[in-house]
Structure formats: C-alpha cells, structure tokens
Amino acid sequence: MHADGDIVAGDKIVQHPAPRFAPPARQLPAAPRDFVGRALELAAMDEALASAGDTAGERGSATVVQIHGMAGVGKTSLVLHWAHRNAGRFDEHVFLDLHGPSRNAATPARALFRQLCDLGLAAGDIPADEARRAALFRSLVAERRVLLVLDNAADAGQIVPLVPGGPGWRAWSRGSAPCRSRSTRSPPTSPARS
Question: Where are the bilayer-spanning segments (predicted)?
C-alpha cells in the first residue's frame, strides 16, 4: 500500500479513496427572538438531562427527553432556546423536522438517509434498508456527543431508529402528544408565551 491510499496488488493499482466526512453538524435553526419567561420549564429541562446523564453512562444508552403539549404553546421555541443555550456541551447539533402525523411525515429510513448524507456519505454508499442505515449511522457517531432535536414527532416509531445507543447522545423530541418509550422523560410544559 502506498502512502496515498492506493493499494498495489501484483501489477495492478487499485485506488481506494479515503472516506470523506463532513464537518460537525450545526443544524439548529436560529434561536427564537424575544424569548421571555419559561424559567421553570428551562430548569426542568436542565434537570431532566442532568439526572439522565448521571445514569446514561451506567446504562450505556442515549437519553431521550420529550416535550409535548397543545399546538401553539411554544414547544419548538422552548427547545431551540434551550439547545442554543447549551450548544457548547455537544460536538454536534442535529435538527430534524419529522413533519408529525401529516401525509409528508418523515420515515425513519428517509431521516437516516439525510443524516448519513450530512455526515459526508455519497448516496450510493448508503444502504437501502432502514436497519442497515441505522446500524451505519450508529457506527459513525458512536463516540460523539450529539444533541438531536426531533421536531414534530408523531410517535416513538419515528424516534427510536434515529437515536444511537451511546451515552453521549441527548435527544429532545417535540410533538403534540407523548410518545411512549422506556428511555423518555417529559418535563412539564405550559401555555406560557415564549
């Protein structure tokens, strides 16, 4: 093998390009302007992740925290405000709008495809089936501390395949109704202005 990555076999040279990886993801939308109040909810979010972080390493798994409530109460603004305030704690910031229960809801396979492309993989290098995409995604991000914001989640079926198992992962799921999952915590929300 040459230093440039070419593999020499007999009289043939096989070029094996190095994988290309994108820079760390910084996908959070802009922080909400004129965000006021919600001190109790922000404190509950901090506490939910702090207490989850204490046990995540023991479990060896990611932590999913869920924000749910009526439409229009400012759930997305709340999560984005918290995410921007805590961005420095994470290597990457991923934002996915899952489009909730609409006809255009993002399937886990489609969301994983987008995430793998964002990591720098070429479309032709991404497996066709969801399970292999999820396994590849988990392998590529296993050692990173990632904040994952899943907006407009319809149910746990949209969330679970997108959350790798590593303890450095923290995911905020935002939807109108709670999604039942073993690793999910739900701090309180109220219809306060944000």
Answer: none
Helix (H, G, I), strand (E, B) or coil at 105: coil
Q: How confident is the model at residue 21 (pLDDT cuts 50, 70, 90)?
A: low
Q: What is the pLDDT of residues 65-87, one digit of tens each?
A: 788 878 888 888 899 999 999 88
The CA–CA distances, whole Å, from 171 to 34, 64, 127 equal 25, 5, 24
pLDDT at position 179 is: 52
Instruction: Name residue 104's amino acid.
Output: N
Give the Cα separation of 99 and 179 in Å (integer): 15
State the amino acid at position 174 in one-letter form. Answer: R
> Is the per-residue pLDDT at 36 higher than 80?
yes
d(CA 14, CA 5): 9
Task: Please state the pTM of the whole predicted model.
Answer: 0.73
43 half-sphere exposure, CB direction, 13 A CA radius: 4
Q: Measure the CA–CA gap between 48 and 170, rounded to whole angstroms.
A: 10
Contact 150, 160 (CB under 8 A): no
All structural domains of the chain: 22-185 (3.40.50.300)
